[in-house]
């Protein structure tokens, strides 16, 4: 039996964060290298690792997050190997090098605790009164892990002059330097198919990337927030 299961055994550690298959994240934990992760995402660990839900350093941001994407976090500390997952979603690992990324909170799995982060209202959507989109912006040098409902596509918006349009409910992340605006493409009376998801898109322009998942989020991301 051991030989039959050998192909699923952990591989040697090669980086702070890496994939174990498509849908699991492996994190090499070490003292002083704490991690923020989605609460409830731990599926296994080796070594001595402790967990602190709603850590004090993140409570204010978490309160702001609750008015936006509503995803609680936990602080992970210790030495060993930590495995995280989110209901079988694909895991995408990013190594920021003095860079930043804006992430849909429902797609954020884990990130190094030393990175700068905060909940930001997306600019460029103000003309749609009463509607808002909140993302988690992460900056610095370190590791970030995202999830995607299926294998994502990463669009390079700097390859041409045309704008890139994305359904907000399929949006995972983007470069904060990109310019963002909203666009209505159909009249409400002419909609077919899934409905209002195709009525409004987010238009990106400038230098940077956009990460798009092949499955729309189950929540309306451009909903009214009080």
Terminal CA distance: 56 Å
Q: What's the overall geometry?
A: globular
Number of strands: 15
Number of helices: 2
Give average pLDDT, whole number.
81
Helix content: under 10%
H/E element sequence: HEEEEHEEEEEEEEEEE
Indicate the proportion of strand residues: over 45%
InterPro entries: AIM24 (IPR002838), AIM24_sf (IPR036983), Trp_RNA-bd_attenuator-like_dom (IPR016031)
Protein name: AIM24 family protein
Organism: Streptomyces wedmorensis
Kindly describe this structure.
With 226 residues, the chain is mainly beta. It has two helices and 15 strands. It has helices spanning 2-5, 59-67, and strands at 17-19, 25-29, 35-38, 42-53, 73-84, 90-104, 108-112, 116-121, 134-148, 153-156, 164-166, 171-174, 179-184, 200-205, 209-212. Strands 1, 2, 3, 4, 5, 6, 7, 8, 9, 10, 12 and 15 form a twelve-stranded antiparallel β-sheet that branches. It has a three-stranded antiparallel β-sheet with strand order 11-14-13, with no helix packed on it. A hairpin with a 5-residue loop joins strand 1 and strand 2 (25-29).
Topology:
Blueprint: H1 2-5, E1 17-19, E2 25-29, E3 35-38, E4 42-53, H2 59-67, E5 73-84, E6 90-104, E7 108-112, E8 116-121, E9 134-148, E10 153-156, E11 164-166, E12 171-174, E13 179-184, E14 200-205, E15 209-212
Antiparallel strand pairs: 1-2, 2-5, 3-5, 3-7, 4-5, 6-9, 6-12, 7-9, 8-9, 10-15, 11-14, 12-15, 13-14
Protein name: AIM24 family protein
Organism: Streptomyces wedmorensis
Pfam family, one: AIM24
């Amino acid at each position: 039996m051991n030989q039959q299961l050998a192909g699923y055994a952990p591989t040697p550690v090669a980086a702070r964060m890496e994939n174990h298959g498509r849908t699991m994240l492996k994190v090499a934990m070490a003292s002083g290298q704490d991690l923020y992760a989605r609460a409830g995402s731990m599926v296994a660990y080796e070594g001595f690792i402790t967990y602190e839900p709603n850590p004090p350093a993140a409570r204010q941001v978490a309160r702001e997050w609750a008015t936006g994407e509503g995803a609680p976090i936990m602080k992970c500390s210790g030495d060993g190997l930590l495995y995280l997952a989110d209901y079988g979603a694909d895991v995408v690992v990013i190594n920021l090098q003095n860079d930043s990324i804006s992430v849909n909170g429902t797609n954020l799995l884990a990130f190094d605790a030393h990175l700068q982060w905060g909940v930001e209202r997306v600019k460029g959507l103000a003309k749609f009164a009463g509607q808002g989109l909140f993302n988690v912006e992460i900056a610095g040098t370190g590791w970030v892990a995202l999830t995607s409902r299926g294998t994502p596509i990463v669009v390079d918006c700097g390859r041409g002059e045309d704008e890139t349009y994305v359904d907000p409910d399929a949006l995972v992340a983007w470069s904060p330097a990109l310019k963002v605006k909203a666009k209505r493409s159909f009249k409400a009376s002419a909609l077919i198919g899934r409905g209002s998801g195709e009525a409004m898109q987010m238009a990106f322009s400038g230098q940077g990337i956009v990460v798009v998942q092949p499955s729309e989020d189950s929540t309306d991301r451009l909903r009214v927030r009080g």
